[in-house]
Amino acid sequence: MTKLQSSSVAAESSGTASLLCARGVAKSFGGIRAVRGVDFDVAAGEIVGLVGPNGSGKSTLLGCLSRDIAMDTGKVLFNGTDISGLRAMQAARNGMGRTFQSVRIFPELSVWENALMGRQWKGVGLRSMLCPADAATRRRAGELIDLMGFPQLMHEYAGNLSGGQMRLLELVMAMMSGPRLVMLDEATSGVNPTLIESLKHYVKVLNRDEGVAFIIVEHNIGFIFSIADRIVVLDDGKILANGQPEDIRQNQEVIVAYLGA
Ligand SMILES: Nc1ncnc2c1ncn2[C@@H]1O[C@H](COP(=O)(O)OP(=O)(O)OP(=O)(O)O)[C@@H](O)[C@H]1O
């Protein structure tokens, strides 16, 4: 086995138990084998970067882990619970949050109202969403909006935000369910360099102060290498490499398949 071993070995060697432990995850779309029997672990409080060429299966794998996509085969344990048969909403109630490649906010609601909509991932039913949020929920929404640096935009329509601000708002919404793990899918896409730095800062603060683990799917190599504790490289639906950023940077197979010379 090379220095860049399977993710389970990496999680074990870090001395921490897995928060997320996926084994043999596979998903095909017709004849396209998007994910081919992948093992994937995330330790509590770890930031894992998931990178790879276009079409290598990153979003599909993320969808299988978050339960947005039904796997063909495989098993996903989260926080010791088998969530393989659960739907995304149920997985979210167990402590998973996520954002999507294309931003999913409510453009005709204010920033504040969008933050409160994040409650739905906590299992708050739609009917209950018509009732005023309780004091703790309102306090948390205010805290997160402050943390993301846009209290002055609290009452702005979300549809009027810049692309980067929308991404930050999605992170606020994902955080409203009190997740232990948040998955970000191409969070820097369409975001200006200043807000990319802000996003990096907020992810680090949430990780450091609240112990939130992250899986971050990214094409922005500079961003991912500067934030991830560990990087997993997918290629053609399989794990090509898995290791510390400095090892991944020097891995010849990764350079050839993805990073370039
Ligand atoms: N719903 C779908 N129906 C059919 N094929 C799909 C579907 N979703 C993904 N695929 C295919 O599965 C493969 C993996 O796609 P996926 O989006 O997971 O890759 P990716 O690494 O996230 O790509 P990108 O970096 O371009 O977003 C691709 O060949 C893609 O065309």
Automatic annotation (TrEMBL):
Any GO molecular function: ATP binding
Keyword annotations from UniProtKB, A to Z: ATP-binding, Cell membrane, Membrane, Nucleotide-binding, Transport
Domain ABC transporter per the UniProt entry, residue ranges: 20-261
Domain of life: Bacteria
One Pfam family per UniProt: ABC_tran
InterPro entries given in the database record: AAA+_ATPase (IPR003593), ABC_AA/LPS_Transport (IPR051120), ABC_transporter-like_ATP-bd (IPR003439), ABC_transporter-like_CS (IPR017871), BCA_ABC_TP_C (IPR032823)
Keyword ATP-binding: yes
PANTHER family the UniProt entry points to: CONSERVED COMPONENT OF ABC TRANSPORTER FOR NATURAL AMINO ACIDS (PTHR45772:SF9), CONSERVED COMPONENT OF ABC TRANSPORTER FOR NATURAL AMINO ACIDS-RELATED (PTHR45772)
Protein name listed in UniProt: ABC transporter ATP-binding protein
